[in-house]
Amino acid sequence: MELTGAIITLIGSLFLFLGALGIFRMPDVYNRMQAGTKATTLGTILFLFGISIGHLECGCFGKISILILFVIFTNPVSSNALARASHYVGIKLTDKTVKDDLKKDNIENKGEKI
Amino acid sequence: MKKLKHSILLFLIMMIFWILFTSTDIQELIIGVITSLIIVSMMNKLQPVLGDVKLNPKSIIYSIIYIFVFLKELIKSNVDVALRVINPKLPINPGIVKVKTKLKSPLGRAILANSITLTPGTLTVEMKEEYFYIHWIDVTSENIEGATKSIVSNFEKYLEVIFG
After folding, report:
1. Does B51 fall in a domain?
2. Nearest to B117 among A76, A101, A103 (CB)
């Protein structure tokens, strides 16, 4: 059981590492947020889950479930707030971008702020 | 009616959290019930968001299926983003697209937006009435219908049953 937990924790930390690498490599703030949100969510979930089943004797499975739920519910909300704020203050998207509907719509109904 | 359902659900959720935090000892349970009742009565004036949840056998089964669909998509999205990150060419084709949702309930929309953020290559940027603006790491269809079909409909068919 301890070994299974350790392996799951290792996979989780691998995802966290890839998330960090993604933040480093991606070209603009929105793509960075993509890597930052998704990889850290699954990474944290696996990390905590691995700890909880690796140390069953501590009886912390319930508490760790609450932590996992907390991460699932708050991580997307915070990244949404960050992305919305960056778009609102006009941070540019990368040159590779093919489309920006939000900007187009905001220009069409000028005067009306987001 | 809606308010009553909201209060009961809120109470149950708080009790589940309390039991997970502590134990099923009878003294702890009594304290938990008293505290939860006090909090529920204090929260009475807020908007009853949980009142939108439908409670019939079909919606309960769908919520359980939804959890598994969600976990599958979460793992898929992580592998997808991880592969893009370690690929030396960085194969991204990003853009912000507009999609339309059929959901009416505020809680349903919030959960849909959160689920979209955690699934393959999509990030909710803005929400205006029934339209979501989504940053998509690999844009495959540029019109509203196509984007809605490939991003939203997968979750929407479950959430529609759960929240109406």
Report:
1. no
2. A76
